[in-house]
Specification:
Helix content is 30%, strand content 25%. It has 10 helices and 12 strands. Helix 1 (10-17) crosses helix 3 (47-58) and helix 6 crosses helix 7.
Length: 313
């Protein structure tokens, strides 16, 4: 089944060009099934690029997914046109009274800022709190994962000596968890961040379980014991060239970035980068949608959607 998107959303044409099954709103209206309602809070500067990355993963599932896009504030975006934001993005007040099967909150390029210094920190906290009663499951990516771990569980991140950038080998910690079904014992994931959360603190917290980790990148997949919140510290949604784009951007800005680890053949940035994480990324989002959203959510979203979720074994 497809992911349902607005007819004129730029990602729609991009995904169709990749032969990915997307369905227009007009066609979806003719289908007599209830699609999953997934809300995406997009905090990344290039909205269209991130929309396309996430929709590509959401489309890789037998479930029909109805996506809405949410913005964090009304200030103009420097990287996305006002016409695009006005056409496709909703304000929080417009969705506050709704319930959703799933919510995805993206990362944000906020570097080494303390959370309290972030201009929209109060809005982020409000949406995280709201999500605990209005979304069956929440997927937090990268910066959003750190922000939610801090806000919900008082687990602070720390700054690394240098930015971690590259593709890193990870290991499963749990063997029989629905989210990891079909995973290899080892798999690769892109990371691009300055901060990290203590693996020991995460493992010691009674309300959290670490599902996958990396010797270099630390904890990667962390889930709350009630399966309602999934924290992903890397970027499974990245395309082959996303790290390359970031590397070249930093070079152009005079930041002297290191070449992303395990990314280019022979660590040579003139060569085409390896993309060794895409199967993992597709499986991760498919498992999340199936086991933590579809299998858990009520058919009627008007009731208590947060009751009766199974606990991790």
């Amino acid at each position: 089944m497809p992911v349902k998107v607005p007819d004129s959303l730029p990602a729609s044409a991009i995904l169709r060009g990749e032969n990915i099954f997307v369905m227009s709103e007009s066609r979806a209206l003719a289908q007599h099934i209830r699609p999953l309602k997934v809300l995406i809070l997009n905090l990344m500067p290039n909205k269209i690029e991130t929309e396309t990355q996430l929709l590509r993963l959401l489309a890789n599932t037998p479930l029909q997914v109805d996506v809405e896009l949410l913005k964090i504030h009304n200030r103009p975006s420097r990287h996305t046109s006002c016409d695009h934001m006005n056409a496709f993005y909703r304000e929080f007040e417009a969705v506050r009274g709704n319930n959703y099967d799933g919510l995805i909150i993206t990362g944000a390029p906020l570097g080494d800022l303390e959370f309290e210094e972030v201009a929209y920190w109060d809005e982020i906290r409000t949406i995280i709190d709201w999500s605990q009663q209005h979304a069956t499951s929440v997927l937090f990516l990268c910066w959003a994962a750190h922000a939610a771990l801090y806000h919900l569980y008082d687990i602070k991140r720390y700054l690394r000596d240098e930015k971690i950038s590259g593709v890193f080998r990870h290991q499963r910690v749990h063997q029989h968890v629905p989210l990891l079904r079909g995973f290899d014992d080892e798999f690769w994931v892109p990371h691009s961040r300055y901060a990290q959360v203590s693996l020991d603190r995460l493992k010691a917290h009674p309300e959290l379980a670490v599902l996958a980790e990396s010797d270099q990148a630390g904890a990667y997949l962390v889930v709350s014991r009630d399966n309602r919140n999934l924290f992903v510290t890397g970027h499974p949604e990245y395309t082959r060239t996303t790290l390359q784009d970031e590397y070249r951007r930093d070079l152009a800005a005079g930041l002297s970035p290191k070449v992303p680890d395990n990314y280019y053949p022979d660590d040579d940035p003139t060569k085409t980068p390896h993309a060794r994480w895409q199967a993992h990324g597709a499986l991760l989002v498919s498992n999340w949608l199936n086991y933590y959203v579809y299998q858990q959510t009520p058919f009627d979203l008007s009731g208590d959607i947060r009751a009766g979720l199974m606990e991790i074994e």
